[in-house]
């Protein structure tokens, strides 16, 4: 028994106790050997902070801007699917917590509430994440609905032409509930002989031929800025800048897609350098501590997104839990900044961290 949680990792244990095993495994799991899942967190432990002392840290300002929106801290909510498996009201509750914390929520394409329900439930700045379907007309419809309902950016997830093999889901015979956003438009009845239909549904619906040149199509059907989520290399970062997207999210989908993809924090700087300040770079994967947020910012991220901890907060304690998760991370970041001599987010620089490579040299 954990008792009152004092950090994000303890929320994971509370969620494990609160959820049926099938759902907990779905949220917590990663692909195949789960190497990338674990490395996402481990790699942070190999980065040291280089604190500066005797700086006036009597006031710490965590606030920052993301695509022009002022938020209370550089911590956003990542798009994660199916929040109703964690809480009866699903994403509506998560969105309310985002608003209360004055941060941005990226709503998953595969949410359990409709994008309209989420839009009308809170006044948080919202982004909409999208996978492109083989039925381009359906994708276009969704994009238009998101824009009409006040979503401020489109997050195109690029690392999932197919769904990664999550063996716990196969063992548990995890099947996809009805997807609300496309419920009346598309039937998702793919079955699979391995017990779970998650991969089969995705294979049947998603357009695995979608590639760089199709981003142009996407930008012709919306005025929302487009962020590409799921890049891990300098080569792709250069392409992203070239096609004119508004930003990048360095992400390996929380270790749920390609196992043995590198931990995101180990490739963040490569992407940041390739982009050269032309567009903002965001980051997700394994952020569990304020020190992790600090390290990602020092390596060039403008803000981080958190995935699983938000779901764990939601499962354990509903809206209050999500707020607690975000508040804990903010409090830890604030303390880290104070102890490192950084009174504001823009004071966090590359000189404030030492990577493993630098240590070895
Ligand atoms: C995800 N993620 C994800 N990403 C996305 O673009 N669309 C989606 O629908 C989902 N769904 C989803 C479900 C679950 C249960 C998880 C855990 C993750 C990936 C997510 O946006 C993010 O990249 C990772 O969660 C970040 O890693 P952490 O914070 O969970 O370690």
TrEMBL record:
SUPFAM superfamilies: FMN-linked oxidoreductases. One of its GO terms (molecular function) is (S)-2-hydroxy-acid oxidase activity. It is an enzyme of class 1 (oxidoreductase). It comes from the Eukaryota. It comes from Quercus suber (Cork oak). It catalyses: 2-hydroxyoctanoate + O2 = 2-oxooctanoate + H2O2; a (2S)-2-hydroxycarboxylate + O2 = a 2-oxocarboxylate + H2O2; 2-hydroxyhexanoate + O2 = 2-oxohexanoate + H2O2. Its cofactor is FMN. FMN binds at residues 108, 129, 157, 229, 251, 284-288, 307-308. PROSITE patterns: FMN_HYDROXY_ACID_DH_1 (PS00557), FMN_HYDROXY_ACID_DH_2 (PS51349). Glyoxylate binds at residues 131, 253, 256. This is (S)-2-hydroxy-acid oxidase. InterPro entries: Aldolase_TIM, Alpha-hydoxy_acid_DH_FMN, FMN-dep_DH, FMN_HAD, FMN_hydac_DH_AS. PANTHER family: PEROXISOMAL (S)-2-HYDROXYACID OXIDASE GLO3, S -2-HYDROXY-ACID OXIDASE-RELATED.
């Amino acid at each position: 028994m954990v008792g009152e949680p004092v950090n994000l990792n303890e929320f994971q244990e509370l969620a494990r106790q609160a959820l049926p095993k099938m759902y907990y495994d779905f949220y917590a799991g990663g692909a195949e050997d789960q190497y990338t899942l674990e490395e996402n967190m481990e790699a942070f432990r190999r980065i040291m902070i280089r604190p500066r002392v005797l700086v006036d840290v009597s006031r710490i300002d965590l606030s920052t801007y993301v695509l022009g929106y002022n938020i209370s801290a550089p911590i956003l909510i990542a798009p994660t699917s199916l929040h109703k498996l964690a809480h009866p009201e699903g994403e509506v509750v998560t969105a309310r917590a985002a608003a209360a914390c004055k941060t941005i929520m990226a709503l998953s394409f595969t949410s359990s509430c409709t994008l309209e329900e989420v839009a009308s439930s809170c006044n948080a700045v919202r982004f909409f994440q999208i996978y492109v379907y083989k039925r381009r007309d359906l994708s276009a419809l969704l994009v238009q609905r998101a824009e009409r309902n006040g979503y401020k950016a489109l997050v195109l997830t690029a690392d999932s032409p197919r769904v990664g093999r999550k063996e716990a889901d196969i063992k548990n015979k995890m099947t996809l509930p009805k997807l609300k956003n496309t419920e009346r438009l598309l039937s998702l009845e793919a079955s699979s002989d391995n017990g779970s239909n998650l991969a089969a549904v995705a294979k049947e619906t998603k357009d695995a031929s979608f590639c760089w040149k199709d981003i142009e199509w996407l930008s012709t059907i919306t005025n929302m800025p487009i962020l590409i989520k799921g890049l891990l290399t300098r080569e792709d970062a250069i392409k992203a800048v070239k096609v004119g997207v508004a930003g990048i999210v360095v992400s390996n989908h929380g270790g749920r897609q390609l196992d043995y993809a590198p931990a995101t924090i180990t490739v963040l700087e490569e992407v940041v350098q390739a982009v050269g300040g032309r567009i903002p770079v965001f980051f997700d994967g394994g952020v569990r501590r304020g020190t992790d947020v600090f390290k990602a910012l020092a390596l060039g991220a403008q803000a981080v997104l958190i995935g699983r901890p938000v779901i764990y907060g939601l499962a354990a304690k509903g809206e209050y839990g999500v707020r607690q998760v975000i508040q804990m991370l903010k409090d830890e970041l604030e303390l880290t900044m104070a102890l490192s001599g950084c009174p504001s987010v823009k004071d966090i620089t590359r000189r404030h961290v030492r990577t493993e490579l630098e240590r070895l040299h």
